[in-house]
Predict the 3D structure of the following.
Amino acid sequence: MAKTFDGERRHQILELYVPDAYTETYDRVYMTGTDITDLKSREQELQRERDRLDEFASIVSHDLRNPLGVAQGRISLAREDGNIEHLAAAARSIDRSLELINDLLSLARAGKEVGDVVPIPLAAVVRDCGAQVDGADVTVCDPLPTIRADRRRLSELLENLIRNAVEHGGSDVSIAVGGLDAGFYIEDDGEGIPPDDRDAVFEPGFSTNADGTGFGLGIVRQITDAHRWDVRATSGSDGGARFEITGVDCVS
Amino acid sequence: MLFENNPIVIWEHDFSEAKSYLDSLSIESTDVEAYLNSHPSEVAALFDKVKTIDVNRNAVEYYNAKSKEHLLANVDQVLDEEA
């Protein structure tokens, strides 16, 4: 590792060469430096890709095998005793598998860069996303800003946060979305997130709800990362969960 | 000209004092690497005995030095013990 006078750290391969005339005295030794900083950077990016693939494979093998195993078992039972109630249970497990596959695909896509970033009136997208989630009671606290974002990813982020509130707070939960300085928040009046879990909730696979896949907030984190926004979990004004997204480019 | 205009970074060193010092330690040549690995302070001592005589133009540009003299006077700022 070498350092330039303006503080930049560079990776180099240093090689020494001693001309034949100096192999006794060593008073002339030449050293060449070949810069491999870009190569190292690509190597580290490949390592990160490999780590993400490992994480993905581990999630698939751990979380997807379980409901498929249940479905397989229930179908075997239905074959043995002819009770079609086993098939209904198998169908629920297969639905659960499909839900996991959809979330995993979304998680894999979310890791990539965002697409077209355009000005989007946040209030309209929040209303649309609220309508997409069964049982969601979403209040838009005007005025919400117009922000620069990838429209599809922003919708995905909002739907996941709204679904998260409904899954944990039930159909009685009230959800509010409001503006922040360079950002916005979404909060509910449910039970909230214990302080010790507020970082862990964004880890893929983390869930305290047996019906949840545990990937929703992981998808949220990846979408905010892709936009270079920050997201944090905190406590809402009524003690429920509150998610603050900041570092957002607001155009109005 | 070949030294000065070479597109890779080239340093010209005088290792004679470092070699004399190493010889004075009376280590078998096959054991030098193992000895230095187990005596890191000797690596620093050897490094101090290496004189840098010259660098080529590409080295001055690569390390963003003000001049060849600036780089020659501040070698320890760009090449540390790790190098």
Chain A has a mean pLDDT of 88.
